[in-house]
Amino acid sequence: MYCTHFDAKRCVSCHWLDRPYPEQLLLKQQQLTALLAPFAPLEVLPAVASSEQGFRHKAKMVALGSLAKPVLGIINSQGETVDLSDCPLYPAAFQRVFNLCKAFISRAGLTPYHIESRRGELKFILLSQSLHSGRFMLRFVLRSKNCLASIQKHLPWLLQQLPELEVCSVNLQPKPAAILEGEEEFVLTEHSVLAEQLNAVPLYLQPQSFFQTQPVMAASLYQTAADWAAKLQLQHGRFAAIWDLFCGVGGFGLHVANPAQQLTGIEIAPAAIASATRSAAELGFTDVKFQALDSAAFAQAAATPPDLLVVNPPRRGLGLGLCQDIQRLAPEWLLYSSCNADSLAQDLARLSQYRLIKVQLFDMFAHSSHYEVLTLLAKQA
């Protein structure tokens, strides 16, 4: 992938872009293999490669510049304002949407927020696109409600220019800190969810729901987890109960379980739980319970283990307490998806009752040192 901003050293967010992509993938695989070598995995599968550009279906742009000439991008380490509307990581359709957003910023009087002076209203533009439908969700992150009425007034113009816009909302983030979004959200469109579909599984994304940045790789990750689980059941018998901790909108659980199995999904965000429940109903699940709870607290209170435990924690990993509860509950099988191999390795050291069976790298974040890892663990006799 060629990027004019990287070439000019204006943006180096893709810090491995100067390496050929096959070299990037090989280096990641080598790093992961070395990191997990102490756990002697029985099988390290080949890495799943990413597209080299146009793969990010979720953008987080800082609102910069002026009301007359808004900029969507970053302030780099040299203090320069860099417009990334043409960033090649995003699908081609994103550039047109970014340009419409700039016109809307000027039209609605959304003065970009200035960090040093703490003046202005618009902090971020957050844009997501459904791989399945091509439709968009657009969120304006504001300092206050001052511009809410103006956005509502001018939104019909934006909807006319961009009929693919399914969901539009305003998020309030009043703190003068490097925080992406606040707790308060105002949905301004008729629809409040963006429908996605991966591997024939419907998923519904609400404004504050977590979802993978790259849906093509997410589909591959979910399908691999489903394939591994199906093979286990062929070899060892049907799972009576499956838990999906940190379940988000239900991606892993709804792929791994079938509609007749008992599925429990735990996620702290109520909006994500509502989406997962809707998807489960559409798929015909008859014994499913998605709950808005803390995953660690749920495991701590549990007395009976599932046959299969699926976990997809944030970058910090599971942590000591949850690992201890997994050891206490002792499910037969554990599927662990991680976006941070270092915290994964720490957790594997804590899960001493388990044997590492399979490992596979999914290159969710091409041109960087980051990646997703799926692992299968079995309780040792």
Automatic annotation (TrEMBL):
Pfam families registered for this protein in UniProt: Methyltransf_31 (PF13847), tRNA_U5-meth_tr (PF05958)
Residue ranges of the TM segments: none
Origin superkingdom: Bacteria
Binding site for S-adenosyl-L-methionine: 212, 246, 267, 312
EC number in record: 2.1.1.189
Active site: 339, 339 (nucleophile)
Coiled coil: none
InterPro entries xref list: 23SrRNA_MeTrfase_RlmC, Methyltranfer_dom, MeTrfase_TrmA_AS, SAM-dependent_MTases_sf, U5_MeTrfase_fam
Sequence ranges assigned to domain Methyltransferase in this UniProt record: 243-301
Gene3D superfamilies documented for this protein: 2.40.50.1070, Vaccinia Virus protein VP39
Keywords: 4Fe-4S, Iron, Iron-sulfur, Metal-binding, Methyltransferase, rRNA processing, S-adenosyl-L-methionine, Transferase
First-level EC class: transferase
Family indicated by similarity: Belongs to the class I-like SAM-binding methyltransferase superfamily. RNA M5U methyltransferase family.
Annotated protein name in UniProt: 23S rRNA (uracil(747)-C(5))-methyltransferase RlmC
